[in-house]
Structure formats: structure tokens, C-alpha cells
Amino acid sequence: MQGMKPENKCRETLQKLYQLREKSAFTEPAEALALLNRFLIEHHQTLQDCPNNTLRPLVDELGSLAEALIHRLRLSFKQSSVPLSARARKQLFVLLDSLNVSEQLFKLEFRLAGTHERYSKGGAEFNEARILSVHERLNCKQEHLLALHHARVRAVSLLILDCFQAYVPVPERLYQHLHKVARQAREYLFHKHHQGWVSVRASYLAILMLAMVNPYALRCEDMEEMLDCLRHLSGYVRLRSEPTESMGRYLDISGRIAPHVAISKGYTAGKRIFVDVEELFSDKARNDIDKGCQHQLDRFLARLQLFIIPRKTRKKIKSDQEQDQKPWVWVTAGFYSAHQQLLQQATASGDKINTRLALSGIDWLGTEDSPARKHNSTAAKKHKPLELNLDRTKPAEDLNYEGIPKGDRTPKVSFNRPRRWELIDVSDGGLRVRWPEKGKCRIQVGDVMFIESEGASAQKIDTFYVAVARWLRHVNEQLDVVDVGVEQFSGQWSAFFAYPEGARMGQAESWPVFISSTNGKFDYIILPTQESLRGQVLRVVDHDGVEQRIELGKPIEQDVSYQLMEVACG
Question: What is the pTM of this model?
């Protein structure tokens, strides 16, 4: 292309771009986006030399193609399981590299937006562009630049959210770039387009606030819902160079330390900022949002206070060199499977189900066959939670709710089996465990678990207890090792089955529940979320078939899979 005029080079590059678009339609999104990145590198100088009149169609085509490919890649990546497969890791790296593509396009867009200045100078150039007045042209330029700044901040925010939802650490440069583009947007928009800056600031603060409360302790869909709510609440958060008496804490903005890790006052000036969240606790903030957002605000504030108040010191397990063997625990994941495992502890009946009790269902048909993410509708359709394949039109083939089949057959039920997990460390009321295999880990935040200790861990934690997964995170560079933070439900828990008051056992559907008691008196109950609205008065049956009447009290905690409530009478 040497010796060609810049405009001719630009047109030839545009033709090559059309060819790339056609090719990308039949190519994996990760590979297609990598090709686009290489295209921009190879034709960087040509794009710099292009006259503005021929650059415009090129930038439009590049932007359209990049947006489509990033969208395709993000949809594909969100279907990945944990730990990430080799294919998913490649997708993630290409997705992070898309930041280079986006930045090159934004620079070209800013260059084109700057050419609007000529319309304010009059003369021949002005006479050739009488479609709009000078004032209208300048307004058009400001709106265009506002859209560019907003899109730039949003592009970085989405990449950070991608890392959160894959439970992988956010690269240091992403946080650095987020603060950089937000600062540049403020410098341009604060005085020229203040209302525009408010909208850009909302996107910036929302992802920052989500990062402050450790999103690895949230489900993917909860992250998105909370992020949307935080955008509406960003006006109640203040960023200050120095602290006030208001509630808040210092935040590192160098990218070296994750936002959910608080830093000290003595941290290097210019690399930290004080986040003032006092107004988020006001009635004004609460009344400014709908009920759905109020629920997310409550969850956010509850989590936020955990990070403002100092955390308890963990009791670190000795290193591998200091002990004869690695400590480990048996983990049974999922509400129904954990219930079944606790039931077996009480009955010591092996794999048999007590026929006096209800056959209530299973969790995931085994961890290997479960859907990767619950917000992934495609995966959810592939893996139904329970398929007994019974012909309900034939009475001889049916099962009653007590789990007693017609005839002499034994019901075939598949629960998640206990797995050995490595015990990494222990804290008061919880522990950190590591997924022991290279295969898929189907644990999600909020899953109920049953923990049993043996061997070296028996001296570290209780023999067994009911717990919940609070956070997940990849912990190595290869992104194939996952740690899970587990919190114990305090108290002594037993496995029961419950059914509505007034119905007869065997004629009404029952469901599994966990109940804690002190000196024979029931204190709390954990029941499946979908069953929490079946009535306030229940009959519960223990493993010996003894029935009791209980009344549900106020709710303590609710998640997607379970609800923890007080027992008012029982």
C-alpha cells in the first residue's frame, strides 16, 4: 500500500474490514475478536493517517463489528462452569484484551468528535455546513462526547463484572483503567455537561460499590440486580480526599488492593480515597427507590457493615510442610442432599431412605450433571432438577408422598454424594475449603452444605454441622482451582420433614427442613424458599416418625434456595 494516497489506503482498509466481518460470522467469537484486535494493530498507522471524511465509515464499521463480537463472546463466556475450562479461560483472556480494541476505537471517536470545533469559526468551512447552526453543532458535539465517555466507563465496568461473575480476581490494570477513564470523564464533563457527568459517575460508582462488598459472596444474578440498584443510589455516596466523621472507609485506587479490602489512613496520598456512605442509611435514600431496590439496598448495607467493622482474625491451618497430611473435610452440597446426609447420620441407615418419611426431591441429579449457572436459561432447560419418569395415569406405577412405592420396588433417588475437600483455614463459625478436583465445581453462593470432619481436621472443627456457601473465588493463575468460604449455622441441627397443619401425612406433600433446638425446645428452622409460604403452622416429623406441631416466627435470612426463620412455638 506504499505510495497510495491516505484516502485510498483508508478505502482499501475498509474493504478488508468488510471481509473480516463476513469471516467472523462463521468463526468462534473469541477467535473473531482476536482477529479484529490484530487487524487494528496491523492497520494502526493507516487509521491514523486517514482523512476524517473517509475515517468516519471505517470507525462506524469497526464499532459495529466490535460491539457484536464482544456481545457474542460475553454470552458464550457466561455459560462456563467453575472452575473455568481451558476454552473458558481463553474466552476470558480475549474478553479482557477487548479493552485494547475498545480504547483504540474510543480514541478514533474522540478525534472525530473534536473536528466539530471548526464549525464555530465561521468562514468557508462554516458555509459548507449549514445543516445546523453553530449552537446546535456544539450541542451535538457535547452530547456525542458525553455518550463516548459514558460508553468508555461502562465498557470497563462490564469487564470487571465479567471477572466477578466468573469468580476470578480482577486484573490490577482494570481497576487502574476504571479510575483513569472516570477521572478523564469528570475533567471534561463536570463543568461543560454536569448532568452528563452525574450519569457517568453513577456507572463508575456502582461497580466500585459492588466491589467494596466482595461480590464473590454473591450469585451472578444478585450481582446484576444489586449493580442496577446501586446506579440509582450513587447520588447518595460521596468521594472525598480526606475522611469525615461520617460512616465510610479508605479505598485503594492504585488497583493493587481489591476494593473490598480496607486500607489505613497512612496509605500513600493520591492512591487512596475516602468513600462516604453515610447517606445510604437515610430514609431519604430508601424512599427514593422501589421495593425491589430497597431489598437490594438492605443486602448491600448489611454486607457493607461487615467490611467497615474490622474482621475477626482467622486461625490459620499449618502449612503442608508442618503437618503429616493435609486436613480435609467431607462436603455434601445442596439443600436436599445435605438434609439426606444429616438424616443418615441420625438413622445410621446407610443409603436407605426411611420409608416413614417423605420422598421430597433432589438437588442437581449429582454434581456432575448440574446446570452451571442458575441464570443461564439454556443450561437450566438441559438439566431438570427431578425426573422420576413416572406415568401418573397408572396407579401401580405411582409413589405416595411417604416414599413408599406400590409393590416391592425401592424408589430410585440420586443425591449429591459427599466429596473430600481440602481444608485451607478455619475462623470462628466458618472455614475455607478448596475444590479437590480439576472437574466442574457446581457449588453456588447460598447453597446449603453438610460438613463432616475426619482425620487431621477433626481437631480443628466440629464433627459435623450444617452450613452455607458464602463466597467463591478462583485462587491460582491457571483459574482451575476454586476456594469456597463456608459459614456454619450455629446450633445443633436435626433433619425433619414438614407438611401443612390440617393435612394428613401421606395425603399431603411434605418437604425436608432443618431444625435447631436447645434442651428439647425448637429455636430455628431452615426450609426451602419455595415452601416458606405454605403456611405459618406446620407438622414436623423426625427420623423416628414422631410428629410435633410448630408455628413459624419472623424470618432471619432468605436466599434463593433456603429461608432461615425463628420457631415461635414448638
Answer: 0.72
